[in-house]
Model the fold of this input.
Amino acid sequence: MSSPIAYLWVKAFHIIFVMSWMAGLFYLPRLFVNHAMESNPAAQERLALMERKLFRFTTGLAHLAIIFGLWLMLGFHIGGGWLHAKLALVVALIVYHVWCGRVMRDFAAGRNKRSHVWYRWFNEIPALLMFAIVILVVVKPF
Done:
């Protein structure tokens, strides 16, 4: 399937799933900030449940974003130096996502050792990656 219409549909779904994945990656660390500040066991359990459900949902969105991105790249022969840089940043975003899963499991097991301030900084990582990825995709500097 290499028609211009098919390309636009695949691209649209890729953008939709990336936006949805990013929304989850922006919100999940905010839950970590709240969790790190919370001392009430009932509230901590509620936050752990919210984190688990959001992580599971966001992981599905990540898979769909990656599938549609690969379809764009391989099915429509998109390439260039900018794409290699973008893919490296996407790998970093995947590593961040996996790291969020580990943080979530540490909170659930009562093993968190970091402060809410650390999580506030941790929360900025996906925004920086998104910023760089969008510039690479739109500007295609190389």
Summary: DSSP finds five helices and no strands in the chain. The chain has a mean pLDDT of 97. Residues 73 and 79 are 7 Å apart (CA to CA).
